[in-house]
């Protein structure tokens, strides 16, 4: 007997097609020479992408670092804004220079964090690019 859906040969006492899972009924038996209504779908045996999970994880980490970088940049801008608003009321001279120095000291830590984050992001983006290139090479090799 042959499956009426995919044309695969099935045993006479089978209730379902082993290939496509179509329910079989004795009344639907197809003559062996008859053409099936549609061809069987091929299942892909392509190996799983070894780079997919690494790239996904790296993109997530990059997104988190970039968000943290935005937070630091926003905090620094807010600090600068506050100092510039109040600096307008200070007389020029030593007092205003001391005030500027105080602003610079307050921004020193966040500036260092910002530079470190930028360096980390650059390294991770280079790593991501390497993984994406390796993934493309792997895909080309698999498709051959």
Written description of the protein model:
The model is unreliable at about 25-35 (pLDDT under 50). The chain is rod-shaped. It is built from two helices and no strands. Helix 1 runs antiparallel to helix 2 (about 95-144). The chain has two domains: about 1-40, no CATH class; about 50-144. The protein is mainly alpha-helical and about 140 residues long.
Short description:
The chain folds into 2 domains: 1-42, no CATH class; 52-143. The protein has helices at residues 52-87, 94-143.
N-to-C CA distance = 37 Å
Rg of Cα set: 33 Å
> What's the helix count?
2
Alpha-beta content class: mainly alpha
Overall pLDDT confidence: 80
Helix and strand layout, with pairings?
Elements: H1 52-87, H2 94-143
List keywords for this structure.
single chain; 144 residues; mainly alpha; 2 domains
């Amino acid at each position: 007997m042959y499956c009426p859906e995919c044309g695969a040969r099935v045993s006479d006492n089978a209730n379902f097609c082993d290939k496509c899972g179509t329910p079989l009924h004795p009344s639907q038996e197809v003559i062996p020479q008859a053409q099936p209504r549609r061809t069987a779908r091929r299942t892909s045996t392509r190996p799983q992408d070894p780079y997919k999970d690494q790239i996904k994880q790296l993109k997530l980490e990059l997104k988190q670092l970039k968000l943290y970088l935005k937070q630091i940049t926003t905090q620094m801008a807010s600090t600068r804004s506050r100092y510039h608003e109040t600096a307008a009321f200070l007389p020029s001279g030593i007092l205003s220079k001391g005030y500027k120095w105080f602003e610079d000291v307050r921004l020193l830590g966040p500036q260092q964090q910002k530079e470190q984050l930028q360096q980390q992001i650059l390294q991770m983006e280079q790593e991501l690019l390497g993984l994406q290139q390796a993934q493309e090479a792997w895909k080309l090799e698999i498709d051959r």
